[in-house]
């Protein structure tokens, strides 16, 4: 048996908000009642959302007694047109690629460059000082710095 909620389009916003507030309030009350009496728990919509998802799974997916919209009303919003550039494929030369990457790197500060290097090479990289960086490979390390071992004797 599915609960029927009859909402007029004009009343939808008010009723939607009331239902959301009701559900979120009940969930917060459950959290507070389940916690130790001396626990101080602030309103946290992220935490409430985790519990809400679990309850929704039971009521909507397992018991099938209401729809997702009936449990916690929402609206599917049309995405606003973006000002993002057209993602049309571009064909560029090696020289154009290298030049573009060099320009991006030139504009970075040391910390951003370290993060980019760590992400790209596979590890944790950070700026130490005076143009020096420290790098610790992780499971994604691609071997990109192996040439430094011979040049700088980093493993001695």
List keywords for this structure.
two-stranded antiparallel ribbon, mainly alpha, 2 domains, 8% strand, 6 helices, 156 residues, elongated
Question: What's this model, at a glance?
Answer:
The chain is mostly helical and 156 residues long.
Task: Strand order, main sheet: write it out.
Answer: 1-2
Count the strands? 2
Distance between the termini: 73 Å
Largest sheet: 2 strands, antiparallel
- Strand proportion, as a percent range, falls in 5-15%
Structural classification: mainly alpha
The run of helices and strands is: HHHHHEEH
What share of residues is helical? 40-55%
Query: Kindly state the mean pLDDT as a whole number?
Result: 82
How many individual helices? 6
Radius of gyration using CA atoms only: 27 Å
Low-pLDDT regions:
none
SSE topology sketch:
Layout: H1 12-34, H2 45-62, H3 68-71, H4 94-106, H5 110-121, E1 123-129, E2 132-137, H6 147-152
Antiparallel strand pairs: 1-2
Walkthrough of the structure:
The longest helix has 23 residues, at 12-34. The model has no long low-confidence stretch (mean pLDDT 82). The protein has 2 domains: 12-71, no CATH class; 94-149, no CATH class. It is built from 6 helices and 2 strands. It has 156 residues and is mainly alpha-helical. Strands 1-2 form a two-stranded antiparallel sheet.
């Amino acid at each position: 048996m599915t609960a029927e909620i009859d909402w007029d389009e004009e009343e939808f916003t008010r009723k939607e908000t009331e239902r959301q507030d009701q559900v979120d309030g009940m969930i917060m009350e459950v959290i507070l009642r389940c916690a130790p009496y001396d626990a101080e728990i602030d309103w946290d919509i992220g935490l409430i959302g985790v519990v809400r998802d679990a309850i929704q799974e039971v009521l909507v997916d397992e018991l099938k007694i209401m729809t997702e919209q009936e449990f916690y009303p929402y609206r599917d919003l049309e995405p606003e047109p973006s000002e993002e550039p057209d993602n049309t494929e571009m064909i560029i030369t090696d020289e154009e690629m290298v030049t573009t990457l060099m320009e991006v790197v030139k504009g970075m500060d040391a910390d951003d460059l370290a993060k980019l290097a760590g992400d790209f090479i596979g590890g944790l990289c950070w700026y130490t000082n005076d143009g020096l960086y420290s790098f610790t490979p992780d499971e994604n390390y691609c071997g990109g710095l192996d040439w430094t071992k011979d040049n700088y004797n980093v493993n001695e």
